[in-house]
Amino acid sequence: MGLFDRFAKAGFPAAGGGTHKAPEPNPSAEQLLEQGMQFEQQGQVEDALRCYESAIGLMPELARAHFNRGTILLDRGDAQNALDALSKAVQYKPDSAGAHFNIGAAYARLDRHEAAVSAYQQALTLKPDFAEAEMALGAALEELEQQEAAAASYRRALAVQPDYAQAHHKLVGILKSLGRLDEASDCYRRMLAFDPTNVELLNQLGAVQKDQKQFQAAATSFRQALKLNPQDALAHNNLGATLRTLGQLEAAVESYRQALKIRPDFLEAHHNLGNVLATMEQPDLALASYRRALEINPNFAESLTGMGSVFHTLGRFDDAVASHQQAVKLKPDYANAHSNLGIVLQDLGQLESALKSTRRALEINPDFCEAYNSLLFMHNYLADQSPLDLRSEAERYGDMVARHARPKLSWENTPDPSRSLRVGLVSGDFCDHPVGYFLEGILAALASSALPLQLFAYPTRACDDTISQRIKAACTGWHPAAGLSDEDLAQKIHDDRIDILMDLSGHTAHNRLPVFAWKPAPVQVSWLGYFATTGVAAIDYLIADPWTLPASEERSFTEKIWRLPETRLCFTPPDADVTVSPLPALSNGYVTFGCFNNLTKMNNAVVALWARILKEVPGSRLFLKARQFKEASEQHEVVARFSEHGIEAGRLILEDYVLRESYLATYQRVDIALDPFPYPGGTTTVEALWMGVPVLTLAGEQFLSRQGVGLLMNAGLPDWIATDADDYLARAVSHASDLQRLARLRAGLRLQVLASPIFDAQRFAVQFATALRGMWRVWCKQNVGHTAAH
Known about the structure:
This protein is elongated. The model is unreliable at 13-20 (pLDDT under 50). 56% of the residues lie in helices and 7% in strands. Helix 31 (683-690) links the parallel strand 11 and strand 12. With 790 residues, the protein is an alpha/beta fold.
């Protein structure tokens, strides 16, 4: 901190009038003191120092001379000798607040911060309204990592001097480091009251508001900064980042480009532009922006992991791994890079390495929600997982989100069991996505029925395609949630008086599970998009059916289980003009088994069993379609895995994923679909059945591993469900050996499944609405007679 003004405020009597006098022939100590001060004011420090030393020689008890000499020495960086001189000053004048203050400064420069604190406190005892001493005390306390005490000092300085800008800056720095963003935001507003045109302060306020997830307020602050200075590249960049979060992607791009027009070498703006272009699914432009950032700084880990994520989206898995690994090498404590690397390794089937990377991300940032989601999702791919261990892992996540929530304890919803229900749906997948495929027909059926029920959607990401438009048309309310904080989204749901709030994502991408911890609706439900417990205690129910979740497995869930009578899933018939072909084996002369699931599901046990099938069915082929096959290295890896079991490469057909209509037509080349385990197909199973291809599944014991059981039982195909690996093999061989029976099944299978519960949306809608009504009646019964709090 600065030194005390020894000419005006030191607590010593002022020297003479300040006009230069000719030196006396034999000056007294007081005259030497006055001469020294005159020399100091003229910048002749060496002459002043000689005067003070001479004065002390004549009068050792002259405190002001010791003080002035000590202050000069401190100015010159000689803290120890300064401390000695200043200590002499307080020995002779112990009530000098300025001397105690400068002693504190000397101790601070000697890194003796506890002694500095004591000296500053003594100064404040003598002069309680000493704002500079409060500032210095705060700085010393910060050095001792006593943040709360330091903040109190800065507040006392501001009580004395409300426009003390440095105190505001120091206080806001502590508040941000402590995560007390509301107080930091208030502090910036007080600073702006004294300096309303300060663009830097507006940028800093906006940054805090963004951290608070008050994105609209942040955008307002950045726009105000730009109104004052349209050439502020930082404000353009910050506004772009905020608009991206709000889902205003085109506007975000424009803000970043404005920033780069002003500052072409603005590293962060290039990186952020890459991020938004990646979100807009413009991978080539995104990569160009990341590369420009890396030209400016080749060691910028953030752009390396951004590139890695784009490479992952493009199916360039090897490049993705290399980019994330380089980011981790450059920045070992970069949690995002570790987490992103884990996601790619998961898709490559390297699950142990994926888990290691994801756990490392959580070691660095224990509250990293996305990494926790990845960790829990990865467990779905692993066999021999203890259901109770998985529940415990999910509960740790639930505890984490609960710590950051302030749940609603009462609602304005009238506990009337018969009234029309307001049902909220939270998902990032109201679009061309498996969740959208299952959801579209159901919501249309609910909307067209006379059921007393209204639907409100809260899409968690911006998407606009034909499916999202049809889903939107089925809803009474459509309220985009992108950019809303958990608290704000919870408040919006509460204000919408939602009776039953449904999570459709679980621990998959774009979920907003933390919002459910705020308990914005009286009844909360998990359904559709995830096949395990969420671990969030505030979610009341999970929807299952008689086939998928045995009663013995209910203890694996934090939610209560509510079963629909037939199926928990109902698929929307694809909007594609693709016919069911004749059985290809009849013309090929061999049976083609197929699996179009994510390659990560194909664990070693699956490979071993499928290899046995290929050996038992002479000449048969295995057709695998997955986006991982865009990489030649992944094709080679799969060939090598089957080769270990004696299956040559010529019996494998490996193809990359294609657009949906072409993808569905690919089933015309498949005779029998094989379901992986313990993570079976869902969408792929129903699509195969619709294309006339029966699916052989292995019944597991857990909810996830029984999804195929539920679909096939409802499709009327119980003889395609195996009880163990040997039974799976036997059934595959049996079905493949009777091509005429297989051909007849294929010819009628589409009509069979379209008439089944897994495609009958009207039938499902009634059962679904009945279940929601049942949940609502339970809540009403528990809350009868209660008066809602307003």
